[in-house]
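DUF2798 domain-containing protein, Malaciobacter canalis. Tokens?
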Amino acid sequence: MINAKYRRLVFSFLMALLMTFIMSFAITFLNLGFIDEFIYKWITAFIKAFFIAFPAVFFVAPFVNKLVDILIKK
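Tokens:
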């Protein structure tokens, strides 16, 4: 198992991975439909999006957690 001190890094990686996988598929499909080069264009979009999403999630997630704590009654 992975050491608990890496929780934020692992969370950010997995969240970015899954979200960019799903969203790049959806946006590629909506923009192009199922064309002959769909898989290539989707994977290309996924890789580009992941390299933007991973640091974004890493740095934004703590702020969002604090915001949720403010908004949710305990």
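The radius of gyration is 16 Å.
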